[in-house]
Amino acid sequence: MTKTLSLLVLSTALALPQLAAAQEIKEFRIGVLGGENAQERMTNNECLRKHTEELLGVPVRIFTPADYDGVIQGLLGGTLDAAILGASGYAKAYLTDPEAVEPVLVKTNLDGASDYFSVGFARKDSGIRSMDDLKGKVLGFGDPNSTSGYLIPAVEMPAAGYSMEPGQFFKDVKFTGGHEQTIVAVNNGDVDAGVTWADGLGNWEDGYNSGALRKAVDAGIVDMNDMVEIWRSKPIPEGPLVVRKALPAETKAKFTEMMANMINTDKECTYGVAGGETAGFSPVKHDNYLSIIEARKLEEAKGS
């Protein structure tokens, strides 16, 4: 072996421990989408924090930004390592930087499907029973980066003849800040109707099996007997659990496996993390979100 080759082999060998060290993580940070009470989100995900910390052997922190974009930007900037995004939020992250995150799992409903609905609702005592009854009234959206709370109704409602331009059909359309805020706004009469997400399974009185309405019922925020459903979207693909692509492969594999098995190891924790009854988390790929990515492109093009 020549002297040059020997030095190359030696330098490579010395670099290996440094490469291994670079692959180690010092902490793991999980983002939880906004739109609900921050303390409630922390409480519902504390079990996830503990399980992840035990698994990875490093400190794990939960972050609860005020809005959806706080989580998206955290993932794009590398200050968050994992999060369950809505489909539209994933589309935004992908369109901004295709190399930032990768989808690994998706919530599965009790019927085995991995989709849900945007649901329009109003107070029963308002006399509103359909979209036509909303003419000249105020509709509440949640967050601009929400799939069910904005993107899908903003696409499907105008296609059905209900313009989003204030004054054309609705008196006004308002952003409330999130799903919980929309439910509270409708319940308090601050807006005449709103849209939020639900799996559409189970009983209306329970807020269905999972979704923002179920969370609100569990938290004692709303009595669904006071509400009525007035609109429902076409099925929407559930948003993915994503992990930061730059994470070590072993970390991603361990975390993904833990989440996939959580329905068996800690069903109560899964309920809190998933926002209600669920069959657990199943594998998912980028291709599942191509239609949402295209819808997001078109919606962004309208505003440009």
Automatic annotation (TrEMBL):
It holds the Pfam family Phosphonate-bd. Residues 1-22 form the signal peptide. Keywords: Signal. The keyword Protein biosynthesis does not apply. Belongs to the phosphate/phosphite/phosphonate binding protein family. NCBIfam families: 3A0109s03R, PhnD. This is Phosphonate ABC transporter substrate-binding protein.
